[in-house]
Amino acid sequence: MIYLDNAGTTKMFDECVEVGRKFSCENFFNPSALSVEALEISRLLNETEKFFLNKLGALQGNVIFTGCATESNNLAVRGSLRTGDWEYVFSAGEHPSVYNQAKKFELEGFKVHVVPLNEDGQIDLQKLQSVLNEKTRLISVIHVSNETGAVNDLHKICQIKKKICPKAIIHVDGVQSFMKIPFSLAGLDVDLYSFSGHKLHAPKGVAGLYVKNKSALKELFYGGGQQYGLRSGTENVAGIMQFKKAVELIDVRLNFDKVKLMKEKMICQLSKVNGVKIFDFAGSPYILNVVFDGVKGETMLHALNEKGVIVGLGSACSSKKAGNRVLENIGFDKDVIISSVRISFNAYQTLEEIEKACEIIEEVYKNIKERVS
Ligand code: PLP
Q1: Which of 2.60.15.10, 3.10.20.90, 3.40.1000.10, 3.90.1150.10 is the CATH number of 2-9+251-372?
Q2: Which atom of ligand 1 is nearest to the CA of 145?
Q3: Rounded distance from Cα 144 to ligand 1 centre (Å)
Q4: Measured in angstroms, how far is the CA atom of residue 370 from the centroid of ligand 1?
Q5: Does any ligand 1 atom lie closer than 6 A to the CB of residue 207?
Q6: Is the C-alpha dihedral spanning 63, 65, 69, 70 positive or negative?
Q7: Tens place of pLDDT for every residue, the chain, 373 residues?
Q8: Boundaries of CATH 3.90.1150.10 in the chain?
Q9: How far apart are CA 266 and CA 264, in angstroms?
């Protein structure tokens, strides 16, 4: 099997298995309990929080561990909501875990601005500028698009915010960027940053939210007051320690360069195939959109699956719905969207696998085209 849907999820590192066993079967204590063993777990969690802050390049603040980035995004966005005459700003390229909150805010009567994307798939900075004002409470923007790989310029967004609404909060959905593209929160005026374990070879069920200033957020659920009162509930200690292990094993720069070669190889091979169009948003090397003229993306996905190649159709959460909101916003025609497939890499596959996948993709596409014409 050649797995090319790594923006959907990744295979967990073998090294995380033992860590999970250790913190489930041996050091299984509740970090809120008072035994010496439990206090040791609490100390380890504090140390792990610092480890993640360091990996993010954050000079101050905290990390709240959550169950998934959907939860991190909800805590960030819904947790920033305040009564009063405030406005909330979202990019049109947000993942459903942010975008659907924007839609809900509207229904609840809050003033919401959804800023369109430019043809490069990034938030349109001029349009962003035009909706910001002193009433802006929150700007929520995706760092790397899960659909296209387009990268938003956080430095520019922070500059614009500082100029127009210095008190507004910036939330960044960093699920497709953390430990994938080289960046640091140092020097960036980002208040909240979401990230997820299962996109980085850690298990599903663990994620994080960086919080620069805890007083900017309100909790979503009530309980024992764990994690500074912002996320009550016993921490998923094993998952958090597995997440740390995975992050320790990743060399962002090395992986970035490896994956870049894979993407270049795929672009080079597939662009020679008649009817194949590549949409490379010159952003993250991890994600590529490929359009198969005259054949539905879904048909390609199933035919490739039969031949042992797994690809995606945009975000796993939206793939069951017709169309693609993000690609439509960039200005893609319906025909192009329907024929597109999302290919996403991980750094631990080989160039030979990519070459083989390209051969299979070409063969499958030619076979289907012959049948339909
Ligand atoms: N944000 C982005 C950009 C994503 O790609 C995803 C997952 O596809 C999520 C949020 C949701 O992450 P999780 O599966 O951890 O809830």
Answers
A1: 3.90.1150.10
A2: 3
A3: 11
A4: 37
A5: yes
A6: negative
A7: 999 999 999 999 999 999 999 999 999 999 999 999 999 999 999 999 999 999 999 989 999 999 999 999 999 999 999 999 999 999 999 999 999 999 999 999 999 999 999 999 999 999 999 999 999 999 999 999 999 999 999 999 999 999 999 999 999 999 999 999 999 999 899 999 999 999 999 999 999 999 999 999 999 999 999 999 999 999 999 999 999 999 999 999 999 999 999 999 999 999 999 999 999 887 999 999 999 999 999 999 999 999 999 999 954 445 455 568 999 999 999 989 999 999 999 999 999 999 999 999 999 999 999 887 7
A8: 2-9+251-372
A9: 5
Helices (H) and strands (E) in the chain — how many of each? Answer: 12, 12
Contacts of residue 239, defined as CB under 8 A and 6 or more positions apart, other chains included, come to 20, 65, 197, 202, 203, 205, 206
Atom of ligand 1 nearest to the CA of 97: 10
How much is the pTM? 0.96
Q: Which CATH number fits domain 14-249: 3.90.550.10, 3.30.565.10, 2.60.40.1580, 3.40.640.10?
A: 3.40.640.10
Tokens of 256: 């970035």
